[in-house]
Design goal:
Helix content is 47%, strand content 7%. It is of the alpha+beta class and 484 residues long. One of its GO terms (cellular component) is DNA-directed RNA polymerase complex. Belongs to the sigma-54 factor family. This is RNA polymerase sigma-54 factor.
Length: 484
Amino acid sequence: MKPTLQLKLSQQIKLTPQLQQSIRLLQLSTLELSQEIERIMQENPLLEWDNCSDYRDVQPGNNSELLMSDSSDFQDDAAKEVISVENMTTTVMSQNNESDWKQDHDFYNGSREDEYELPQLAAKPISLREHLNVQISQSQISERDKSIVGLLIDSLNDDGYLVQDLQELVEILPPQLEIDMDDMHIALAYLQHLDPSGVGARNLRECLMLQLQLQPVETPYRDQALLLVNEYLEILASRNFGQIKKLLSCDDDCLRSVQQLITHLNPRPGAIFNSEDVRYIVPDVIVKKMNGIWVANLNLNAIPRLSVNRLYANILNQRHHDSAHGLASQLSEAKWLIKNIHQRFSTILSVSSAIVERQQQFFKYGAVAMRPLVLREIADNLNLHESTVSRVTTQKFMHTPRGIFELKYFFGSHVATNTGGVCSATAIRELIKQLVKTENPQKPLSDSRISKILGQQDIVVARRTVAKYRESMQIPPTNLRKSF
């Protein structure tokens, strides 16, 4: 059999690296985009922050494809092409500011007349263990007892509870230390008298008991609260107030005072020392009212501002031999990144504008006026794929006069009404929230009752659906909302 050559034509769909980057940037949040740009800039010297240009000309357009321009567009003179976008990190921008450098230079040379103000650094918050160890170091107990108490402190969790059994701690200690259970109990008793009250407890009951015991004896209803926590805490959690009144032999006023005394205790005494970094949301879009119509605009503070380095671009234009091949590749990558960022925010603006156009009543009346909306509706209107709209609306936020919302918040399924119309699931959730907020605390509304009230407004919602929406909003059931 003779070997032969055959010519075969076929079509394949492949994503170019530039298109892959465009899709990846589209699904990143603002913070993740900033981190991605920082990473790329460290690898590509052709990219730099642009402090001069503005990015106010981005307009929503027909984004039928994520990328339409051909790569030949990038063969122009890079020194003449500077595409800029706003930079959300002003600290990075100031690094290239000549005037800032001159002021610092004058200060170190002693030529500044004004007093130089050092930046105010936030003090590191003290931890629970540090707070307790300071109290131990100032106590009058022996060094041996201090060491045992320090061992118990190291076994506390972030809420201040002792999560490890005392017997287990004794067994893991070296025998030559001669530490027994009596030593552990003495150390635990000392630990439980430290600030904050309730620290060192082994469960919720003990935590509340410690805090009640440290209150003055003359505190009203202290004894009833101690009895209720020690003997009937589970009944209190189920809010079976009728049974509690019988067990304590008290009336409504007494039970109300006891309940108030217990609810003012801290079930997590160590939580006040937990220092977690607060991450603020930077909205991608700002909605404002213009000529009586709500309009979406890009948040210029959320958009990074980049340009191609002119110096390197000019050097590349003057050299046409093989040594400049790597630099030319980086130049192409830099311009593709700038274009993809421009495309990203153009797509976000297009989708946001379409959302605002359809949810005008929400901005006027609130969540109760939210209309049903699905991704397919926006995708068909903008000639985009539904997956693209999904990427755009994930981890992208819109600042409105009613608060900051993720773009996905404006989408939701619909429920039919008796009049033949539809009602958004978001609007139904808001109605349920308002009904629970205005209910009588002594006679809270059941899911069936809420379903009937909505039915009187021509909104057909089953009891199971009401329960599902209520649980999604973390609203407790009827028995846990009841109070005196």
